[in-house]
# Entry
Amino acid sequence: QLQLVESGGGLVQPGGSLRLSCAASGPYYVIGWFRQRPGKEREGVSCISGSGGSGNVASAVQGRFSTSRDNAKYTVYLQMNNLKPEDTGVYYCAGGTIAGRGCDRVEYWGQGTQVTVSS
# Structure
């Protein structure tokens, strides 16, 4: 079983930056970031594999968000720049351990971290 712990959320002013961390308890195949914004359905934000590649982000946040990993720490990051009030929500990381499955079929979820963008 893969355990995931998010950190790094908080309150930030519009235009500011935050870096979220997702610490996994062990090796993973993929880890994705998802968000649940008020009044909206959960949506995927990014996805990165544990073995290679630079990861990808959703078109809605492209140019502002990026994802990366530290394999030595089994940790995946979501760097969020130029944050907007509409980025407010709970951000979850979720991971999968089954080879061949993408971020749309992850099995394990973290508890979420709140991101609030407000002046």
Remarks:
- The mean pLDDT is 96.
- Residues 86 and 108 are 26 Å apart (CA to CA).
- The two ends are 40 Å apart (CA to CA).
